[in-house]
Hints:
The protein is of the alpha+beta class. It is built from three helices and six strands; from the N terminus they run H-H-E-E-E-E-E-E-H.
Amino acid sequence: MTTLQEHIDALDRMVEQGTSVSKLRSQIAFIGREVAALEADYSSLGQAHAKLQGAEPQAEDECIHDGIIFKRGKRTGGVWAPFCHCGRPALIDDNDMVACSAGCPWICNVSRAELAQILKTL
Length: 122
């Protein structure tokens, strides 16, 4: 698919080559239609974004235990789940410790067994 910039470059080449006025006007009309379509897409995306910004945030319960943030809500299926301080879910790493799923440097000195015990108390 040809980009808008490529169509504009083609128009420049047509002008340099002395292309007829009717062909130049045709290329300009095509570019105009492409710009109008992009403007319509941009407007609709802006409206969708505004609608999403106005949406009610998902309520979550949250508590902190042994340096781990635990959340419970719609995105966790209503069960308590560990989260990193960066906001991403936590997991058990290769060393059997609680760590960030996104790879940030946060790690907690809590083992899989200790995590299971904490989850039982929440």
